[in-house]
């Protein structure tokens, strides 16, 4: 009697991002990566933060979350706003390829300057 192992194929399926070198072991994380890192290439894209969506309904739901945002992107010509600090930091890192201090929210282009700043930053007010 032959055993059907076709259900195991999906366990080892990998998802390669066609826009960068990232590889994912599951479809959920791959789609999350696409929406967060390559939102401008998605069928629907948030004009506030750049996050992409596969459907108009998901974009509408996402847009409702922008109300009452307090963390503003420090990059000039970017009007993205976020309710949570770590969402702002992810946005700055993925969309603008910059490093942001979690204490004072200063932004750095070069990683060695950012690392030096981290050892001296004393700001805890954010």
UniProtKB/TrEMBL annotation:
InterPro entries found in the cross-reference section: Snail/Krueppel_Znf, Znf_C2H2_sf, Znf_C2H2_type
All residue ranges annotated as the C2H2-type domain in the record: 15-43, 44-71, 71-97
GO cellular component terms given for this protein: nucleus
This protein's UniProt keywords: Metal-binding, Nucleus, Repeat, Zinc, Zinc-finger
Domain of life according to the entry: Eukaryota
Protein name, UniProt field: C2H2-type domain-containing protein
Subcellular location, record wording: Nucleus
Keyword match Kinase: no
GO molecular function annotations of the record: DNA-binding transcription factor activity, RNA polymerase II-specific; RNA polymerase II cis-regulatory region sequence-specific DNA binding; zinc ion binding
Keyword Zinc part of the UniProt annotation: yes
